[in-house]
Design brief:
The chain has 86 residues and is α+β, with helices and mostly antiparallel strands. Helices cover 34% and strands 34% of the residues. It has one domain: TusA-like domain (Translation Initiation Factor IF3, 2-Layer Sandwich), CATH 3.30.110. Helix 1 runs parallel beside helix 3.
Length: 86
C-alpha cells in the first residue's frame, strides 16, 4: 500500500466575503488545482468568517468527490478539502 502524505497546502483566505462569492471562489480553486488535490498530496485550506460557507462549501466539495472538514478557529472557520480516501 502506497503511503500518502500531504506535501502541499493551498491557503485560500476569503475572510470578509459572503456567499455566493465564497462558494464561487472555492469552486474556482478546486477546479484550478483539481489534479493536485485528487492526487492526495495537496489540500485546500479555506479561511472564512461567513457561517453559511461552513455548510455550502463542504457540501459542494463532497458532491465533487472530495473530503471536507470544518473547524472553528478563534473568529473564523477553517475548511480543509482534499482527496476522499476509500
Amino acid at each position: 500500500m502506497e503511503s500518502r502524505e500531504i506535501v502541499e497546502t493551498i491557503d485560500l483566505n476569503i475572510l470578509g466575503q459572503v456567499c455566493p462569492a465564497c462558494l464561487l471562489v472555492v469552486l474556482k480553486a478546486l477546479n484550478d488545482h483539481e489534479e493536485r488535490l485528487r492526487s492526495g498530496k495537496t489540500r485546500l485550506v479555506v479561511r472564512t468568517d461567513h457561517r453559511d460557507s461552513t455548510r455550502t462549501v463542504p457540501e459542494s466539495a463532497r458532491k465533487m468527490g472530495y473530503e471536507a472538514q470544518v473547524r472553528k478557529v478563534d473568529t473564523y472557520y477553517e475548511i480543509s478539502i482534499g482527496r476522499k480516501d476509500g
